[in-house]
């Protein structure tokens, strides 16, 4: 007895796919472009950071006067190296304390000078009421 089995051969599959070599080449090209873009961005950020120049703020000079109860008339000056070494090289400060009214009313004129750029000094004027201060030019004797 013979069985009537017919042997059918399967037709070869015709699939389109990428070879391993093509995938490796595509990945390597992608990563080369990605790292080139990252390098350009990094160089740009470093250059932008170098262009930024920090300048001191008036808060460094004003805060001691806000916290104290006594102001003494006079002219004061100094360098930011004394307050914060190596943070603001080339910057200096000046301020003048003057009593402008009775009962301890003072005017303080602050100035921050940039010796490196030669630009115009930045100035700020504030007023303080410090009745415990010694007599100044506006009040000779209290």
How would the blueprint of this fold be written?
Blueprint (H helix, E strand, L loop, with lengths): L19 H32 L7 H9 L6 E6 H4 L7 E11 L3 E10 L7 E8 L13
Antiparallel strand pairs: 1-2, 2-3, 3-4
Can you walk me through this structure?
It is a single chain. This protein has 142 residues and is an alpha+beta fold. It folds into 2 domains: 18-52; 59-129, Pantoate--beta-alanine Ligase, Chain: A,domain 2, CATH 3.30.1300. It is built from 3 helices and 4 strands; from the N terminus they run H-H-E-H-E-E-E. A 4-stranded antiparallel beta sheet has the order 1-2-3-4. A hairpin with a 7-residue loop joins strand 3 and strand 4 (122-129).
Order of SSEs: HHEHEEE
CATH class descriptor name of the largest domain: Alpha Beta
Domain unit count: 2
Model regions low in confidence, pLDDT < 50 over at least 5 residues: none
- CATH topology of the largest domain, by name, is Pantoate--beta-alanine Ligase, Chain: A,domain 2
Fraction of residues in helix:
25-40%
What is the percentage of strand-forming residues? 15-25%
Largest sheet: 4 strands, antiparallel
How widely separated are the two ends? 137 Å
Mean pLDDT: 86
Q: Shape from CA axes?
A: rod-shaped
Summed up:
The chain is of the alpha+beta class. Helix content is 32%, strand content 25%.
């Amino acid at each position: 007895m013979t069985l009537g089995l017919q042997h059918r051969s399967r037709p070869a599959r015709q699939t389109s796919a990428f070879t391993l070599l093509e995938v490796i080449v595509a990945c390597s090209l992608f990563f080369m472009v990605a790292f080139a873009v990252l390098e350009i961005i990094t160089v740009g950020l470093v250059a932008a950071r170098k262009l930024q120049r920090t300048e001191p703020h008036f808060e460094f000079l004003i805060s001691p006067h806000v916290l104290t109860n006594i102001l003494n008339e006079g002219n004061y000056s100094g360098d930011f190296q004394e307050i914060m070494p190596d943070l603001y090289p080339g910057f200096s400060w000046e301020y003048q304390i003057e009593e402008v009214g009775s009962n301890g009313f003072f005017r303080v004129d602050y100035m921050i000078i940039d010796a490196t750029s030669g630009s115009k000094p930045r100035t700020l004027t504030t007023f303080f009421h410090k009745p415990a201060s010694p007599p100044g030019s506006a009040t000779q004797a209290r």
